[in-house]
Amino acid sequence: MDSPLGSISLGQGIMKSSIFRHSWILILAALNAQAMGKKQNRADPEIVCTRHMTPTLLPPSPTPSVQPGSPVQQKPPMPGMGPTSVSTLSGPLDSVLFLFPTLTRYQLEEKFRNSSTDELMFFRATAPLYYYLLSHSENELIAFTDVLKHTGVVMGDAHPENFGALVINEQTVIYSANDVDDSATRPYVLDLLRYFSAVRLLRPDADLAPLLDAYVAGISATPVSRTLRDSLIYDSQKKGLKVDKGDVDLTLFKFPRNPTEVFDAPKEESRIYCGLALHHYSGTKCLDVAHVERRSGGSAFVPRTWVLIETPLGIRHVEFKTQYRSSTEAWGRNRILDTESAVRIEAGLNAFLGSARNREMQAILSDGTSILMRPRYAGNGALKFSKLTPDQQLSLFAEQANTLGQIHVRTLNKKVTKRFLQDLKKVPIADWEKLSFKLIKEIRQWHQYTKSLP
Predict the structure, then answer these.
(1) Does the predicted model carry a pTM greater than 0.85?
(2) 227 within 8 A of 389, measured Cβ to Cβ
(3) What would the pLDDT profile of 50-64 be if each residue is shown by its tens digit?
C-alpha cells in the first residue's frame, strides 16, 4: 500500500543566516519613479534586495486541509492504468495537477505536450512529478535511510544540461550549476539521485560507480579531468560580456522571434524593471523591454522580463525571472512560503558561485513575489550533449558529478563531512541503479502517455 505523502521521517536542514553578511535594505520605489519620469496612480511596489538584509525565515505554510483518501494524499495513478480506487479525479493529468500549483489544467497539459519531443526535455519539465514518485519509492529508499539525514543547499534539478560556464566579469569565468530555480535545503542525496536518473536516461549503459567516485572527489576538493570544462570556459571567455545576437538586434530585442512566447512588456512592468536594471548595473539608458513566457520545459508559463540597457561598459541584457516553490517540495517535506523563495535562491547562488559571487545575480522581493535577477551574457553557455562523442559524454558526466560535490561541500558542515561520506559509501551501487531504473521507468510511462494526448 502506498504511504501518504510525507510519511518518511527525514532530517531538516536549517539555512544559516551567516550567508547574508549585510544588513542594509535597498528600497527602489523612488528610483523607479525617477527613472521613468512619470507619476503613478498607486504607490510603487516595495522592492527589497534580499542579498543585503538579515533574513527572517517565515513559518512553514499550513498543510492543506484534506480528507483521508483524497488525491492530494495518495500516489497518482500511473498512465495506462486508469484512475485507482483512491483517486476521485478523471485521469492521470488531473491526479498530478496539485504538484504544479501555479498552472491551470490547460497549461499543465500544454506544458506536458510541448515537452514531450524527447525524453530529457520531458524529464526536465516534470521535476515535481519525479520527486513525488521518488517519495513513494519506500522500499528502494530503505538503503538510503542514513545518507538522507544529511541536508544542505541542493540544486534540486540536477541533470547534464543544468551545468555550464558562467561569466562573472571580464577576467573570470567559472563552471558550475547554471539553474538556481529549484535550489533548496534538502538531503544532498536528492541531487545525486536525480542526476544519476538523467544520466541513465541519456546513456543506459553508463556506469554509475565512477560518477559516485567523482562526486566524492569533489567533496574532498580533489578535481577530476577538466578537459571538456576547460574547453567550454575558454570559448566563453572569448564571447565574454557581449549580448547574444540571437536575442538582440543592435539595440532592440528581436520581434517576433516567437509571438506566443516573446512580446512587448506592459507599461507598469517596463517601468519597474527598467528602473531596477538601470540602478543595479549603473545604466544610463533603458533601450527595450520584453515579456517572455516559455511554453515548454521546466520553466513553462513562468513569467520573465527582459531588459536591454546601455551602460558605460556596453549594452547589457538583464533577465528578471519570477520564482515559485522549488520542485523538491513534491518530496513532501519542509514546505515554505512563496515569499521565502528569495531566501532559498540567495542561498543557492552562494553555494553555486562560492567566492566568485558578485552583485550581478541576486534574488529580490517585489510586492511579495520572489524574482531572480541575472545577466544574459553571450559567454554563458553549456556543452551540447548530442554533439559529444560517447567517450566525451561519459567524461562530461564525471566532470559534472565532481562539480556537484564541490557545490555541496560549501554547505556541508566540516564536522559531519566524514560521517556523510561514510553513510554515502554504505549504499551499494546496485541500490543506486535499482532506484534510478524504477524512476526512469515511471517517467517514461508518463512520457508515453503524454505523447498520446490529442
Answers:
(1) no
(2) no
(3) 322 222 222 223 333
